[in-house]
Amino acid sequence: MGSSQWLSELKRRLRNLVTPRAQFDRDLEEEMRLHRDLRAREFRETGATPEESRFAAQRKFGNALRLREEIHQAWGWSWIDDLGRDFKYGLRRLRNSPGFTTVAVITLALGIGANTAIFTLIQQVMLSPLPVAHANELYSLGDDKLAWWGGGLQEDFSTYSYGLYRYLHDHTPEFSDLASFSAGTVSLGMRRKGEQNAATSFRGEYVSGNYFIVFGVDARKGRLLMPADGQPNAPPAVVMSYRAWADRFGSDPQLVGSVLVVKGVPVTLVGITPPEFFGDTLSPYPPDLWMPLTMERVLNPGASLLDHWNEHWLYAMGRLRPGAKPGQVQAHVTAELQQWLKENYVADRYSSDPYVAARYTKDIPKQHIVVMPASGGVATTRDNNRDALRLLMVLSALVLVIACANTASLLLARGTASRLQIAVRMALGATRAAILRQTMAEGVLLAVIGGALGLWVSMATARLIVLLAFRDAKYVPIHTNPSLPVLGFACVISLLTGLFFSMEPAWIASRVQPADPMRGTGRSVGDPSAMPQKSMLVLQAAASLVLLVGAGLLTRSLQRLELRSFGLEPQGRLLAWIDVPRNLYPPARLETVYQQLQQRLGEVPGVMSSSFASSNPMAGGMMNEPISIQGKPPVPKLKDGIWPSENRISAHYFQTLGTPLVRGRVLDEHDTAASEHVAVIDEAFAKSFFPGEDPIGMHFGIQTARHSGDYRIVGIVANAQYVDTKIGLYPTFFLPLLQSERYEDSAEDMEQVNTAYANTVQLDVAGRPEAFMEPLRAALARVDPNITVIRMTSLQDQIAANFDQQRLVARLTTLYALLALVLASVGLYGVASYMAARRVNEIGIRMALGADRHSVVALMLRGAMRPVVLGLAVGIPAALAAARVMASQLYGVKSYDPLILASAAAVLSLCALVAAYVPARRSASIDPMQALRSE
Amino acid sequence: MSRDEIPPGTLYMLILRVLARSGELHGFEIAKSIELLSQDILQVEEGSLYPALQRMLIKGWVTAEWGVTAENRRARYYRLNSAGRKQLTEEISQFERVMGAITRVIQTA
Question: Looking at beta carbons, which residues of chain B come within 8 Å of A35?
């Protein structure tokens, strides 16, 4: 066989695979036609007219359609034909009852849509790889459990100093290339060169020169960074994200190649990344700018992390060579890490402090690196959202169960109505299997239509959930358009749903005894589907109650949380994050600029008190420092293995935030760089380190015993929750911004210099804090336009932001509870309507015998409400049990809160009553004569 | 002239036999051949011919190939293969055994 022939044969076969049966039927048809035509010709030759011959040939041949069925059966295809017929029939039945179909389809669409939405999120957040070439080759050094910035040993290493990264880069041949990038982004003030307006804030990330090569990303415009850009003397070049370019610069083509001023430093914008690339981390705050690591030194002169071998601030990620085994690589990398630590920590840094050197020698064998697949990039977002998404999965599954129960009860009701028809079909010889299959086909059809609609619902709700989940996010790199896996999920879940909810109705329909319904002709009172139908309603009512109670508890708990006191005065407080450019303000100039700032802020009308500090309260994150206390043995770590928290503050800090002084004095204007170095501590610090003693007048210092006399404690303030709402009270000490100590160790010395820079401003104002955002910005600009405001928020909003997750969960539970309520009401309405339709005869008789409309309504309502009451009886214990499970997540509300339980039951009953009343009212308004005549 | 239905169970044998004799035939030719060879006594019930042919295809006794008739119409031609030939021998010997038995019963006085 020639190759072209072989190819055409292959093509034919492939075509046959795609439409094998259609082709098969056409062939058969042609074959049979030939037979009939030849036979007809034979008849014609005997003298018949053409028409007669054709008919005679056809008569002789028989029913071609029946023959075809016989042949299909021979091939084992009859089930396809039967199924096709079942679907056609099902479609006709659905078309004939548009009311039922609409209700069922909407119910299923909501149920399937809710689940598909959650799946979309899970798929996007948890499963989807970075939009780069061969993402599966990417591996990260470290599992990112703890994003560590700073020196010391991490045990489970995830961040690396530049020196350590270079060392690992050069000693891991298993990686074809290893890139590094700063853990998290930094805020930068930036403007175009030649424009005089104030710099605006952008998010920047420092990356190694090979970053874009390792990720395999090509420029959308211009070029991306190259290894040459990372060389020490390379002209400063940056790359901008497509989004920043489009949103902030209107996709100005002139921008590429032009000069931007970042923190006062001119840099060239060399290119734009492709639109789908959001960086190495799925985050609501993706970087706008990517800068070479070497720029870090230019932007932070004298306080650069880059040159410090012991400042770990970089993630490392690379492509493994084909064939490299992650387990072996992990062992090798760990060995290299320990080697590097031995060379640097023990031999160099702490050789002068035998105590520390001994400790490190002991700890180095515990240090290790986990090599993790990183096809999805840095994993923090995934970790943060895992629990919330899991909870949502459970919730949406519950909603789907309700939707299924709902549709099943509708189908049951309909099955009851069509019992006579089924009986007739069975009497005429339909098998039980055929009835079963046909009812299920109808169910699957409903589910598939519902699923298609649900997909649309999911697109809408996924976006909604993303908006709820990432409050204030500028941009969420999550695509809510259905992808192939999502489509597959929706298909599978629709089919399963269809099979699931039509199973019981189909079973019951196929159990029909043909004689029974024919005898009764609709007048029978006993009804085999009444029990399962009512049990479906009971299930729905119970599940809805559980969701309602859950929603009520979570919402109440959130309200309590938000109203809680955190040792701060949230009303009328404005917080700002600022950037004082280090390259423009060497430490010597800070005192003057702080004085100017304090003065300008004080001049703003309505500002009662102002201060600045290293960190703002309730913003998460803290600066931890080991301390030594004068006259005491080296301080052990705190219970949970962490050092106390440090904050550097200006005068009026406590007054501005409303933290009361307990004893001694607070820091004020007299505490300058030149005056005696003093500290204020909080009660938790006093309790942890000075139990049963008076801390006032004691001395302590940061790091080694050599510094234990640095600061004298002058005051104690009340406890406040500074870090966030989850971490409770935490021992904290406060030092004046400008009272830095000098350290032998260069890394520690640099950290000391860094803490002198205020990163935040606090204002206590009269009136709405939001109204003071512009005056604050103006006051800063009047001091120096290069001091940029990164972000502003009221303390209230800042506290509220801590509850984002709780709020998301509470809101979604409420959303789903409402959905469940609507579904249950719709289900009850549907069932009540069918009941009413079936009892038309009976009602006619009752009314003919003298029942008035009120008693008919009461009768119908009683019938419809009985399953709801039963559902409450089942649901209340179930809700109590569910509430007990989530008791640990509740704050300030008991899991058995009677008010919430009662309101949930009341809301459910009220909705059910309305849903049942409408059909009851309708059946009471029928004309008895009409009713008696109807079959 | 009266015509007789083909006795049940013998249709396969007849089709196989006709194909063995003529090599390659389409459906109508098979029907026609059976009629001719039986001198118009046996009449194929035309409807049953096509399901029978399909079953024989499934069993793998015959192969089918599309070709063109003398009048230039597309037709499916059936051809015996080795399995079919073996089947034919078997069917004939079985038929003869049964026929012989029946004959003996009838002729026994």
Answer: 27-28, 31, 46, 50
